[in-house]
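Two proteins, back to back. First:
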Amino acid sequence: MSYPTRAPELRTITIETTKFRWRFFQKEVGSKLGVYGPDSGRQPLIVLFAGWQDSWTVHSAPSEGEPNISTTIGPKFVSQAIAFGLANGWQPEQIKSPFYVDYQGDKFSLRGTA
């Protein structure tokens, strides 16, 4: 199954010859990045930002030990997330449950492995 021709909420990025779609789900606390392979209905890559707070909507300092990320969520970051996911077992062409990754302290880790 393919994506709708017009999916304005999803941005496109091509890595080598594979087209991926991605979206940043911004929340006051606990934002996440969703990355999807060439076909919809397959295993998504979900990057969770533990403790990250949107500085535009949360007016208090982040909790100690949970600093805001110091990176921009754009194509460069998404390509790094894709590379990490693929190197660690993400299979975007398979029908599976989401592949979760944590991003904290400017580094990726598999969910639950700090």
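And the second protein:
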Amino acid sequence: MTETLAVIERLANELVEAVAALSRPAEREPEERYLTTEEVAAMLQVSERWVRNHRTKLGGFGTRKMLRFPESAVKRWIERSRK
């Protein structure tokens, strides 16, 4: 069962990356880094639950279990919240 979940998670990650690649303009811009819920929580020093509950404000996309956050969106949120 855990092997199946690991395969599903890996495929979901690949799908998220593929969709992100398709949405990029033809001209190469700097690569966007996509953060996991865990990474965003560590960056903001909050719980993963807090990150999931605020996912739209942080630019999150994907399913509740497979959320990803553009690093640039999280950094913009940090800058806005400091003001």
